[in-house]
Amino acid sequence: MIQVNGLTKSYGDFQAVKGISFEALPGEVFALLGRNGAGKTTTIEVLAGFQPADAGQARVLGLDPMKDRRQVRRRTGIMLQEAGFFPDLTVVQTVESWRAFTPAARPAHEALELAGLLDRSATKVRQLSGGEKRRLDLALALLGRPDVLFLDEPTTGMDPEARRNTWEVVRALAAEGTTILLTTHYLDEAQRLATRMAIMDRGEIVASGGMAETLATQAGRVSFELPEGISPQELPLPVTMAGAVATCRAEDPDLAAQRLLSWAAEKGLRLRGLEVRTASLEDLFLEGIGNA
Ligand SMILES: Nc1ncnc2c1ncn2[C@@H]1O[C@H](COP(=O)(O)OP(=O)(O)OP(=O)(O)O)[C@@H](O)[C@H]1O
């Protein structure tokens, strides 16, 4: 549904995207992650046909987003970081005006209900909060029942309930077969929604793969306060120290915690503040950009 191969894009002599490749399959939520300025929005803009690639290939639904722009636009929805709305139109007027040039559009109330904005239908756009404007954006992006949806930081500014509502919408759309390319700075969001991901840094992909598989290869952590009078060398597993807190990295953190607890029991010690964490996308993210 989305294929990117050796994609390169520069602004003047600044290379924002440096030969990246990835693909998203039908009904998949693919997360494109990376810190500010990594090149995520640029990649989406090329895929949406807003900008030409300098080199490499971008294909959406097997089509060239520049040459076949009209066909691609008809079957894709997009939610960019900055939306341009008319401030004096109401929410429902905004949706109705978009429906006028969206083929096979959903009824306005359906799009607004999906985006959790039905109760604000009569409100003027200028009176919406930041998070509500994101919801209006979402309603417009899914109006044309797109096969491919580009969501660039869709939940920024939303309250926790609205974020959860948006996740449900994304999951439901993916279950119906919509392919979704998502960028987000909320790594828990990516971890919950995406089946595969790529982490970009300074225009390059520094880590990529299936979400579950990639996290399964990452080490988890066990941390605790080092008991008084004990030196790190006496522990049964190697640790790194940060102040009084010892952290042990382990493929199976539950097993490591058991070993540490039985060692402590034998010695009559308590491991205060014990925390056992499986690998998170955040660890992978920080490691990926740290090694870049
Ligand atoms: N129109 C432009 N002209 C010049 N430089 C640009 C332009 N658009 C983006 N850039 C630069 O290209 C780089 C990549 O920007 P891009 O918006 O793709 O990053 P991003 O990963 O989406 O970042 P963020 O997470 O902050 O949204 C940045 O250094 C940015 O300053």
UniProtKB/TrEMBL annotation:
Question: Where does it sit, as one GO cellular component term?
Answer: plasma membrane
Keywords for this protein: Antibiotic resistance, ATP-binding, Nucleotide-binding, Transport
What Gene3D superfamilies is this protein classified in?
P-loop containing nucleotide triphosphate hydrolases
> Which compartment or compartments is the protein found in?
Cell membrane
The topology of this chain with respect to the membrane is: Peripheral membrane protein
Q: Which GO terms describe its molecular function?
A: ATP binding; ATP hydrolysis activity
UniProt xrefs under Pfam families: ABC_tran (PF00005)
Primary location: membrane
Top-level taxon of the source organism = Bacteria
Which GO BP terms apply?
Answer: response to antibiotic
Q: Which PROSITE patterns match?
A: ABC_TRANSPORTER_1, ABC_TRANSPORTER_2
UniProt domain ABC transporter: residue ranges: 2-227
Query: Which SUPFAM superfamilies does the record match to this protein?
Result: P-loop containing nucleoside triphosphate hydrolases (SSF52540)
What's this protein's name? ABC-2 type transport system ATP-binding protein
